[in-house]
Design a protein that fits this description.
Layout: H1 4-13, H2 18-29, H3 35-43, E1 45-47, E2 53-55, H4 56-63, H5 67-70, H6 74-87, H7 89-106, H8 108-114, H9 118-128, H10 137-149, H11 151-160
Antiparallel strand pairs: 1-2
Helix pairs in contact: 1-2, 2-7, 6-7, 7-10, 9-10
């Protein structure tokens, strides 16, 4: 996954404050998670089988240490987006930015083997990974368009200094 300075750089290029970028980095990577986001993960329940439910925080523990692992659960992504939507559109854009950058790094070797470019992979993210709620589709499209417009510089960052 990209280092936080890579996430911060792209957030800044998207005119997102360092404070919001830091917040999303901490929430997504579960390192010194912001208190309100931590509370959200404890209080939000996800329905399970047989009428039982689990908190997002419990599922994070069961499925992995960070939001990336729980991100495999669509319902958890939807809950997180609803929470972040209340904080503002910049939080939603930064959330999408964080996960798209991580996705691009995860596909780095695959991209080399197939010859696909960054734009192709961003399209794959939209098709295979993207989740939207309420009015978040506009923020997703804005982030994806921004990254596609800056694909040359983005490819250099992904190839060179992106891993933690």
């Amino acid at each position: 996954m990209p280092r936080w300075d890579v996430h911060d750089k792209w957030a800044e290029k998207l005119s997102i404050s360092g404070e919001i970028s830091n917040y999303i980095n901490r929430a997504a990577d579960n390192r010194d998670m912001p208190e309100d986001f931590k509370k959200h993960t404890r209080e939000r329940k996800i329905p399970m089988s047989r009428g039982k439910s689990q908190s997002i925080g419990s599922l994070t523990f069961l499925f992995g240490k960070n939001l990336h692992d729980r991100g495999k659960l669509k319902f958890a992504k939807e809950q997180d987006l609803q929470f972040l939507s209340k904080k503002g559109t910049d939080y939603v854009k930064t959330w999408y930015l964080h996960f798209i950058l991580d996705y691009l790094v995860a596909l780095r070797d695959w991209r080399k083997n197939t010859g696909e470019n960054i734009e192709d992979c961003i399209g794959k993210y939209q098709k295979n990974k993207a989740v939207t709620v309420l009015d978040t589709k506009e923020q997703l499209v804005e982030v994806m368009s921004f990254l596609k417009e800056n694909s040359e510089e983005l490819a250099k960052d992904i190839e060179s200094k992106s891993l933690r």
